[in-house]
Amino acid sequence: MSRLITPFVLTEGLQEHAAFQAWRRAQGDDVAPGRIEVLQGSKKAAVYRLTGIGPDDAAIIAKRTRCVTGRVERVIYEEVLPRIPVPSLGFHGYVRDPNEEFSWLFLEDAQGGPYSRLNDAHRVLAGQWLGEVHLAPCADFSEKLPDRSLGHYHRFLQDCRAGLELLSRSALAAGDTMLLGGFISFCDQLELRWRQIEDACEAMPPTLVHGDFAMKNVRIRERAAGHALLVFDWQFAGWGTPATDLAQFIDRVVTPDLGAYRSVLARDYPSLELRDIRRIAACGTVLRVLDQVHWALSGLRVGDPKWVTKAGALLRAYHTSVPETVQRLEMELG
Predict the structure, then answer these.
(1) From residue 100, how far is each of 47, 68, 97, 145 by CA, in Å?
(2) How many other C-beta atoms can be found within 10 angstroms of the C-beta atom of residue 320?
(3) Which pLDDT tens digit goes with each residue over 283-325?
(4) For residue range 150-162, what is the model confidence (pLDDT) as tens digits?
(5) Nearest-10 crossing angle of helices 120-135, 258-265
(6) pLDDT at residue 3, rounded to an integer
(7) Parallel, antiparallel, or unpaired for β 102-108 and 218-223?
(8) What's the average model confidence in pLDDT over 211-224?
(9) What is the pLDDT of residue 1?
(10) How far apart are CA 45 and CA 36, in angstroms?
């Protein structure tokens, strides 16, 4: 849904395009778009911008995704966000794809400028936005949303430890062996501190979480009343610990200002101190690394050299984050 990439533009055969056909099934609208911009295209997901077919001739984002994640995003956009006092994208429909494994979501285009975590004002805006989301009374949606509790991440930890051990028994170069050893040690350290992580995160009750609160999923929109934060791509959303949304300065995460976040939460949790939130954020930062490791190992086939090479490349991209995040966790948890 980004305006910040250069899309591939289609200007012919638009009425026959799958995105417009899905839009027509959802809306019963036969007015073809002026053009279709391909923002993302793969077997698992595709995102298109259809120009001139929304309200006041605005563009509409058509997102084809697997039903399991499409259902989650539909609940977020259609039911959850309208009850939270934050700016959100307009929801324009949902329809199943002819391939029953997939579905289509139709959303307002997230027009706006890029977010920078080096901009203090942006981080304050993000902290305030996140505070409103985490305070929202959404417990009645908990059964509709995936589990994002610490139990979910502990299962990730166990899966990662097993996958790394399996990968370490493959024929690897010396550098890759050391790399895997570092991640295995990371998993061991998390296991040893898991009780402390649980204790720290108990300072906040379960809440709605975005799950991928990264700069690529955020835009800054200018309004007469000031800047507004727009957040999209909720496919990893769920119900559980707010920790990963609070992660700081890793993997291009938003890095919300924790003081601004606390100022909002103080309405309902006046005894929650900034040091408590810093502890939760430190836990969220290591959980974000755990997410990355789990992603790197997903679908791993040890007997397939391509998969082994892919896993190794992803892990190398992440390994520099490990020492700092562990050190920060140790500093905050003591």
Answers:
(1) 18, 11, 6, 21
(2) 9
(3) 999 999 999 999 999 877 777 878 888 888 889 988 888 999 9
(4) 999 999 999 999 9
(5) 30
(6) 44
(7) unpaired
(8) 92
(9) 46
(10) 16
Q: Which of 324, 303, 328, 300 minimizes the C-alpha distance to 312?
A: 300
Average pLDDT (116-133) is 97
Which superfamily does 8-108 belong to?
Answer: Phosphorylase Kinase; domain 1 (3.30.200.20)
Q: Where would I find the H helices in 236-273?
A: 258-265
Q: Which residues lie closer than 8 Å to 97 by C-beta, 6 or more apart? A: 18, 22, 64, 103, 104
Q: In the chain, which residues fall in CATH 3.30.200.20?
A: 8-108
Report yes or no: 259 and 274 within 8 Å, Cβ to Cβ: yes
> What is the token pair recorded at 106?
């139709």
> pLDDT value at position 140?
92
pLDDT at 180 over 60: yes
Q: 187: which 2 tokens?
A: 């998993």
- Where exactly does CATH 3.90.1200.10 map onto the chain? 114-333
- Compare 50 and 31 and report the one with higher pLDDT: 50
Cα angle 63-65-69, degrees, rounded to a multiple of 5: 115
- Residue 188 structure tokens: 């061991």
CA distance 276 to 262: 10
Of 42, 32, 238, 56, the C-alpha closest to 153 is: 238
3-state helix, strand and coil shares in percent for the chain, rounded to the nearest 5: 50, 15, 35
At the second CATH level, the architecture of 114-333 is Alpha-Beta Complex (3.90)
Strands (E) located in 115-240:
147-148, 207-209, 218-223, 226-231, 238-240
Reported as a single tens digit per residue, the pLDDT across 249-262 is: 998 999 999 999 99
Q: Tokens for 215? A: 């700069």
Q: Which helix (DSSP H) or strand (DSSP E) does residue 64 occupy?
A: strand 60-66
> 154-177: b or e for each residue (b if 16 or more CB lie within 10 Å)?
bebbebbbebbeebbebeeeeebe
Write the single-letter amino acid at 232.
Answer: F
